[in-house]
Amino acid sequence: MRGTRLTVVAVGGMVLALGFGGAWAGEIRGDVRDLRQDRRELRQDNREIRQDQRELWRDRRELRRDIKAGNTDEVRQDRAELRQDRRELREDRRDRRDDVRDLRQDRRELRRDVHQRRQSFRK
Q1: What does the CA dihedral 97, 102, 103, 108 come to, rounded to 10 degrees?
Q2: pTM of the entire structure?
Q3: Quick check: 51 pLDDT over 70?
């Protein structure tokens, strides 16, 4: 009977140890997944910023042409488009800034989880 209890306790301890290890691995895997997603979002934000910048340049070019031609109605419309493009550019830059902050936070969490995992092996 004594050997059976010892075996049950040993197997239970191994299951708990593996369970905790799996939880750590799950956290680390989740952090890595978050990092990848944040990088994708950051690349997308950079693409959107470049597109907004191109639209802004295009609208400025049209505005200069309309001013030279003396088309006051089109000048008014082009200025409204410029304001909208600047607003979109600001929003995209704000999104990129937030994504950079998220990426930094996820990196910190990953480093913390890996460090804690290493510390648990040393004990």
Answers
A1: 130
A2: 0.63
A3: yes
